Amino acid sequence: MNHGLTLGVFAILVAAMLGVIVWAGRRTKTTTDFWAAGRSIGSAQNGLAVAGDFMSAGTFLGTAGLIFLTGFDGTLILLAALFGFLPLLFLMAERLRNAGAFTLADVLALRFGGNGVRSAAAIATIVVSFFYLFSQLVAAGTLLTVLSGLNFAVAVLITGVFMTLYVVLGGMLGATWVMVVKAVMLLAVGVVLTIAILAHTGGSLSELNGLAVAHSSAHAAFLQPGQLLPDNTPLTKLDIVSYGLIYMLGTAGLPHVMIRFFTVRNGALARRSLGWAIGVMGFFFLVVIVIGLGARALLTGSVATEATGSGGNLVAPILARQLGGGASTAGGDISLAIVAGIAFLTILAVVSGLLISTAGAVAHDLWSRVLKGGSAAAAASEPKVARYAAVGMGALATVVSIIVGSSFNITFLLSLAFLVAASANLPVILLTLFWRGFTKTGAIAGLLGGLAISLIVIVLSPTVLSSDPVITLHYPGIISIPAGFACCLIGTALSRRERGADSFEEMSVATELGRLELAEAEAAVPAG
Amino acid sequence: MITDGNAAVARERWHEVYTSAAFTALRRRRSRVGWSLTAVTMVLYVGFFIVVALAPGPLGDRIPVFGSVGIALVIALFVAAFALVWGYLSYSSRRLAPAQEAIVAQIAAQRNATAGSQR
């Protein structure tokens, strides 16, 4: 690989994005600017930003590689991500935006008030976003090491420094625009790769699939279930369904995705932006399927071995190199450098969004609201504290990633993030929005109980106890998700006297009609 | 939050809006549509994963263009997801959004009237 060229492309892309960030930074003054981009993002842009979170290095590199390795089974994760957005649209997006919040904890506090539920929600957000962030940084380091020849610590440090710089200087506005720009670039690269693949098969999908099956060691079984999730016993059959549930419901409960609904002007735009997001993501995921199958069809011999050797993560760049003319050709080297550069930019954009979500829980929820009691002085200094929190959390995530290093089990981190999102965040948000009888104690029990149960089931599963697991399910969501709902119900049952003491009606009116719209209607009253 | 300087009065106002016929109708309709579509989504999605778990063999049957029945079904689910989203968005902007705007406009008009009579 021509590391100099790849690093050059990295440098150009990162510097161009810094330009976007500086522009955004000039427009970021108030607290609303920092956390919610001044609620100024349009629906198409926000749609691209939401889609951008899921058109990540994880899908573009990871899933293309997974499809290359496991065929049909690799496509299931794309289905999970896409379907996770449907309940988010049907039940949550508009209502969350209408609540006029900055963080998830804000939404819960609108109904229940008090610091207990806010702290619990902030902790659940920090766990999900921080573990997700952590896994992305380790992945970025590993990837950059292979693509650019830098050593792991330097690679993580560079990613961490730029991530923190983007967030501190540009806030949510900068992070959103970086996401939009890279989403468009990634779409363009995906389309070009797809066209190049289909050009090799004379535009025939049948030919493409035929070649993929012929070149796979699994042969005909390549396009049927069983390569990634074998189903030898009744329990492994259950594991397959559980796998589907974790990644779908986890996607629906990710705080760093939910905060993107707070950046648009009103609920209608939140709804439309999700329409855009689902359309763009769906299209991109289809492109990823073609890239994965195309890699299997077109990469043969030593190149196929090279692609397999990277754990599948370098399938897309290696395919780009082959389609550009092959190794050690100018066309091949340039194609690889461009694809690798955009993949790096993708990671940078995704970790920036995660850092904002984490910093939001720390600075807005824990510092400004819980510690300072939501005082006017605290509100005034929040933009400054937000930046300190971003630097602090960014530095912490970077240092921890460097120390634990590439040997750490990334699957554990990501599984935990999705488990907590599905088992703690999602049940509590749904019950808060829709169940009148839900209580504050129920919400706290759901958040902390869901968190604890997720941690316990993953530690007892083969992900951690590889040799002698207590729970033999690899994906224990089918236990922890119902358990999370049960915690909410038990907490509610134990606190019957709290029933009706919260502001359900106020929250309901605000989330259906729009809190800021109501305030405008109110402001229209001439001062009497 | 509507700032009134008086929490009890504000609470009373929320209660008034919440119990109004128009608001109740909007809330129920939006919730019914949302939960129905969520139920359809879950049945399709979980149903497909159950098929993957119980009948992997037939999903591997080769067909032209898509490669296998399994891949064809994945694509079909993508299309189903697009259709559900399109259905929700169009229903929402045709039916729900106008009802929501009408309620907000009515609240504004009422406040204006109250402010006028107090002057």
Provide a compact summary of the structure.
The complex is a heterodimer of chains A (about 525) and B (about 120). With about 525 residues, chain A is an all-alpha fold.
Strand content of chain A: under 5%
Give the proportion of residues in helices of chain A. Answer: over 70%
Estimate the strand proportion of chain B. under 5%
Overall mean pLDDT of chain A stands at 88
The N- to C-terminal Cα distance of chain B equals 24 Å
Output the helix-strand order of chain A.
HHHHHHHHHHHHHHHHHHHHHH
Oligomer: heterodimer
What is the number of strand segments of chain A? 0
The helix-and-strand class of chain A reads mainly alpha
Helix content of chain B: over 70%
General form of chain A: globular
Low-confidence stretches of chain A: none
Structural class of chain B: mainly alpha
Give the overall pLDDT of chain B as a whole number.
88
Characterise this structure.
The complex is a heterodimer of chains A (528) and B (119). By secondary structure, chain A is mostly helical. Chain A has a single domain, classed as Sodium/glucose cotransporter (Up-down Bundle), CATH 1.20.1730.10. Chain A contains 22 helices and no strands. Helix content of chain B is 85%, strand content 3%. The two termini of chain B are 24 Å apart. The longest helix of chain B has 50 residues. In chain B, a hairpin with a 3-residue loop joins strand 1 and strand 2. Chain B has one domain. Chain B is mainly alpha-helical and 119 residues long. The mean pLDDT of chain B is 88.
